[in-house]
């Protein structure tokens, strides 16, 4: 087991403490126009500004424009008859209505930190709308790195005393042991092994089948000829098929490998929320590994039912998790000696 360690100087402590205080003030300001964040909350996920409208329909008049990662209290959901049909849900927010496609539903669920981490690592899940990760070097000290989002998954590899005197987790990317960053431990939930245990492992490989309809943007899982699971998806955008374009390839494929946490996009982080840097993409099941085409969870949009991706099959996180557990091969959990 990896024990909790301390390695911050007083200067480093004060420097990172100031950065953290700024983060808390930003979070408080994000909710300052609304009621307390004790109910349903939506994080604006659009990589461009999203509008709050006077009525639950597009072009009804814009009340104001939101910002990416802004947090909104959601009072209730409505489904007007004019849709859009593939995703008709809107939410009442302060001042008007916003379409559900622009929101990730999030919560503030603070966790009890672990005292120690298994030597093989521990898979964890972010349980707050987002948290700021930091990287550390002796030359530069502590610098903000990735912003990690709700329900993304990450490998916890150590627990240390943070600059605020509280436990922080060290996270190590599956890409390389050299890509290491730190977040507040109370923002991650350790995922127990039984939660990702295989579903129907007794069935032979050939008894499980996935059918994806690009026309209907639907996924159906079969055991023999019996459908056992359905999910609305978002496939690749129109144009040439991957790897020359962004359209999801058509054909018959097999799951080649799986990863419960996958870094997609660029590695270097500048701190800009709209960069194509996606650490911790959850529940990834590759069916064309060479070009990186996979089923996986999605936290950067909530507009399932129309093409949205660069070729992958985007799924709601819970749906991708079910599929990850159900498909073969079985993911081998780390063994702690």
Provide structural commentary.
35% of the residues are buried. This protein is mostly beta strands. Helix content is 9%, strand content 37%. The protein starts with a strand and ends in an 11-residue tail after the last helix. It has two helices and 24 strands. A five-stranded antiparallel sheet has the order 16-15-14-11-17, with no helix packed on it. A four-stranded mixed sheet has the order 21-22-23-24. Strands 5-2-9 form a three-stranded antiparallel sheet, with no helix packed on it. The chain has helices spanning 10-30, 317-326; strands spanning 2-3, 41-44, 51-53, 62-65, 71-73, 76-78, 90-93, 96-99, 103-106, 116-117, 122-126, 130-137, 141-149, 153-161, 167-172, 180-184, 188-190, 208-213, 218-223, 226-232, 257-265, 277-288, 293-297, 313-315.
Taking the sheet with the most strands, its summary is:
5 strands, antiparallel
**Structural class of the secondary elements?**
mainly beta
Mean pLDDT: 86
Helix content: under 10%
* Tally of separate helices: 2
């Amino acid at each position: 087991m990896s024990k909790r360690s301390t390695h911050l100087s007083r200067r480093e402590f004060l420097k990172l403490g100031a950065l953290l205080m700024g983060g808390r003030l930003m979070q408080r300001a994000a909710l300052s126009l609304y009621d307390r964040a004790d109910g349903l909350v939506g994080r604006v996920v659009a990589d461009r500004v999203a509008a709050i409208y006077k009525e639950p329909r597009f072009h009804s008049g814009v009340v104001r424009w939101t910002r990416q990662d802004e947090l909104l209290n959601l009072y209730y959901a409505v489904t007007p008859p004019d849709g859009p049909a593939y995703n008709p849900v809107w939410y009442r927010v302060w001042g008007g209505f916003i379409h559900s496609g622009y929101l990730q539903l999030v919560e503030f669920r603070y966790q009890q930190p672990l005292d120690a981490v298994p030597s093989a690592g521990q898979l964890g899940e972010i349980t707050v709308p987002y948290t700021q990760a930091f990287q550390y070097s002796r030359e530069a000290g502590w610098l903000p790195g990735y912003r990690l989002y709700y329900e993304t998954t990450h490998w916890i590899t150590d627990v240390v005393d943070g600059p605020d005197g509280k436990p922080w987790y060290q996270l190590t990317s599956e890409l390389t042991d050299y890509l290491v960053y730190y977040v507040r431990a109370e923002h991650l939930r350790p995922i127990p092994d039984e939660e990702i245990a295989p579903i129907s492992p007794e069935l032979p490989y050939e008894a499980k089948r996935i059918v994806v309809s690009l026309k209907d943007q639907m996924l159906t899982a079969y055991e023999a000829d019996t459908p056992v699971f359905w999910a609305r998806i978002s496939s690749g955008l129109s144009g040439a098929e991957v790897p020359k374009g962004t359209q999801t390839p058509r054909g018959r494929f097999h799951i080649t490998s799986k990863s419960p946490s996958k870094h997609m996009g660029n590695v270097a982080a500048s701190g800009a929320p709209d960069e194509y840097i996606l650490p911790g993409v959850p529940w990834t099941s590759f069916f064309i590994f060479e070009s990186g085409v996979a089923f996986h969870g999605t936290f950067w949009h909530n507009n399932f039912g129309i093409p949205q991706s660069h070729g992958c099959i985007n799924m709601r996180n819970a749906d991708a998790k079910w599929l990850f557990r159900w498909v073969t091969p079985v993911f081998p959990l780390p063994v702690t000696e």
